[in-house]
Amino acid sequence: MTADRRRGSESSPTRQLLLDETERLMLEEGYAAVGVRRLAREAGVAPALVLYYFKTLDDLFLAVLKRRADGEFERQQRLLDSKPPLQALWELSRDPGLALITEFMALANHREAVRVAFAADAERYRKAQVEAIMRKAESGLPDVSPAALVVATTGIARILGMESALGITGGHEETVALIEDLLKRFYGSSSLAVDHD
Amino acid sequence: MTADRRRGSESSPTRQLLLDETERLMLEEGYAAVGVRRLAREAGVAPALVLYYFKTLDDLFLAVLKRRADGEFERQQRLLDSKPPLQALWELSRDPGLALITEFMALANHREAVRVAFAADAERYRKAQVEAIMRKAESGLPDVSPAALVVATTGIARILGMESALGITGGHEETVALIEDLLKRFYGSSSLAVDHD
DNA sequence: GTCTATATAGTGATAGAC
DNA sequence: GTCTATCACTATATAGAC
């Protein structure tokens, strides 16, 4: 299973370094900044070495996506179980660290292989989120579809993040206040001070 | 004012054709498919002619954005005044024709000139939307910030469109049902059957 | 207003030496 | 596992003929 799409071992330090630098480049300059030569320069290796570990750029992006998705899924599950799930979701989706997701969303529009993998991950995450809501459904929860709550909550959080990145901020404060007020009403008035880190 | 960024008259049929083909390419294959050679081939002209009308690719994208923004703004204002504004906004933001906006959003991440112009347009649209809500604020409207309602309504609609384009559909039906139910409660139970065209 | 021809630089990817 | 050298192709942009 390791034979034809990739050379080198999965645990190779160089390979990990290339994945790290790819994530950094995507976050700091966008996915378009990631190329064989540029990535090699950032990592301090020869361009051909990038293609030794990742036969194509698709393979590189897919590897970044996979490493992220696995790690983040576990983090999500932990948070979903540690506090009211909708509130956990709101905080998770507003985490600036999730900017990489936005970048992958854009990338998915232009690379079919990434699109397929990204969509599969997104559905997997969403399924787990809906299940967490249903699992912990308490009396305070309104009589609406858990799936709709998940989509609306994460969707608004992500739109706010995307717009902010473009310098669009009109109405953002009011929207954050509205959502956090609604969460407060759903879950009672425990502190909702969101700390991102 | 026509001198140094562009040659050719603003009403030139060839220029209009290039703008049309750019929009079509962006919608069908994404902004990355738009280049001097490709666009020229699609329009059936020589590559250099593209650069005769648009000195740089930035100028081309900016011209597409401007032509769209002007036309759509008028359409938005008409719809905002012809029916309950939040409902108008929901329908407007779900119009598949707005997929071009998503493409520009992605493009804005990678072209500073486009980012600035796009952000200015977005703030202008949002301002007009909030004003329409306030202008027609009726008894049925809930006691929440009009700006928050605008951001949430348009944001959810746009996220649904973006996800659909990637093949992510989990929870979408439920979300549409939730929003349309809320709109019904806000505005009474007049027909909400959405017709996109 | 439209074209050909070209300049300069970039890209992803491969072969093969070490 | 890492390198140099190179292939084939694309990019934006310009100069100047018609």
From TrEMBL, chains A, B:
The keyword DNA-binding applies. One of its GO terms (molecular function) is DNA-binding transcription factor activity. Keywords: DNA-binding. It comes from the Bacteria. Residues 35-54 bind DNA. Residues 12-72 form the HTH tetR-type domain. This is TetR/AcrR family transcriptional regulator. It comes from Amycolatopsis acidicola. Signal peptide: none annotated. PANTHER family: HTH-TYPE TRANSCRIPTIONAL REGULATOR RUTR (PTHR30055), TETR-FAMILY FAMILY TRANSCRIPTIONAL REGULATOR (PTHR30055:SF212). SUPFAM superfamilies: Homeodomain-like. The lineage of its organism: Bacteria, Bacillati, Actinomycetota, Actinomycetes, Pseudonocardiales. PROSITE patterns: HTH_TETR_2.
